Amino acid sequence: MTLKTFGLDQFGFLVFSLQWTILLTVIALVGGGLLGFAVALARTAHLKPVRIAAATYIQVIQGIPVLMILFLSYYGLSLAGFELPPLCAAGASMTIYASGYLAEIWRGCIQAVPKQQWEASESLAMTRLQQYRYVILPQAMRISLPPTVGFAVQVVKNTSITSIIGFVELARAGQLINNATFQPFRVFLAVAVLYFVVCYPLSQLSRLLERRLHAGSSR
Amino acid sequence: MPEVVVENVHKSFGALEVLKGVSLSVGRGEVFALIGRSGSGKSTLLRCMNGLEKINAGRIEIAGHALGGDARALRKLRTDVGIVFQSYNLFPHLTVGENIMLAPRIVKDVAKAKARDVAREVLQLVGLSEKFDSYPDQLSGGQQQRVAIARSLAMRPKVMLFDEVTSALDPELTEEVLTVMENLARDGMTMILVTHEMGFARRVATQTIFMHKGKIWEQGPSAALFADPQTPELRQFVKSDVK
Fold this sequence. Notes:
Largest interface: A-B, 21 and 26 residues
GO molecular function (chain B): ABC-type amino acid transporter activity; ATP binding; ATP hydrolysis activity
Structural class of chain B: alpha/beta
Pfam families (chain B): ABC_tran (PF00005)
Family (chain B): Belongs to the ABC transporter superfamily.
Oligomer: heterodimer
Distance between the termini of chain A: 63 Å
Strand content of chain A: under 5%
CATH architecture of chain A: Orthogonal Bundle
CATH topology of chain A: MetI-like fold
Order of helices and strands of chain A: HHHHHHHH
Shape of chain B: globular
CATH class of chain B: Alpha Beta
Number of strands of chain B: 10
Number of strands of chain A: 0
Order of helices and strands of chain B: EEEHEEHEHHHEHEHEEHH
Keywords (chain B): Amino-acid transport, ATP-binding, Cell membrane, Membrane, Nucleotide-binding, Transport
Largest sheet of chain A: none
CATH topology of chain B: Rossmann fold
Radius of gyration of chain B: 18 Å
Membrane topology (chain B): Peripheral membrane protein
């Protein structure tokens, strides 16, 4: 077997694989966002059992490595008779992982809205649902933008873990090319640059949002 | 038939008993001032009246509603009872107009055009017609508090509660808020206010209640109460206020 060298074709393959990284990130953020939002609401609910259940969920998800969630959903489920394709297993695992963190971030944001806002809206005879919809969540959403975008950066990088179950995203593509070219320095530098190109604008956006929010204080 | 009846109300926070059997009765169009040192239970009493605090014993009836029913009954009561807080508590993400229109729109299902008319009307009442499209953080404290009053008025309450509404304001801003409240009183609104403004209580309140250690220590027509305090505690309190 002749060794190839790291050229334009190989770089093209990396860029192509970056799409899978991005797709996985989007799945994780959308799925994890929906699930995490529900858990965040449950975490701030009136009923104590609901709060405890949500808190337990968050603790469990945050307390185990993503890798274990990934193994469980890929190898575990296939043993149990459910053969998930790598994209599904990866998407589901990243969704669960993101939901645990987003729920906790957003719980903090909901609770950061001053308790007087609850009292004022309650005194105007609003139902709890109306309080959330018109008063609390719009304010919590503003507070949540910087940390949420910041967390998205983590998700982009952490999708690399799905390479372990053979899902060919950016990191896995890098490994494959390195195996064929044996030019690890060039290959992984290129991989790193591609991650950076995606993450840097996101973290800049997060910082910008944070500054905006402080400048406009309450609004 | 009094608009507000409070009967032998007890309230504790944990082991601390804050209200130790308070009774009072406010007639329609009357203005009651609650005065007393901090910790005397006056704010707690006010907050019990619209269900922000749950009472442990006793009975409260306000604007024809009895406290202690389910959530729906409590909301019904709150459509008839407005409250204004020390810290204004306007919704910072909404304009002044939106702040005022929100509850009538979603709680009372008032049509948008009608809600807008009401908002303009109550804003005019507090002298802030030109601030309809401003955001709360563009207003002074006094203006924000007047908007908070307008927001309450837009619900067409039968009783208004004021919880130390000028305590966070400079003297000059205090004046503009008190003027609005005085006009309300003159227009016949039933009002209960917790206040440190003795001059205002004396001038505007029909009755003043001096609270001490969780009880009504002394009560009477404002002028008489301030001119001739019966208890040493009130005498001391009135004297310390003059400074």
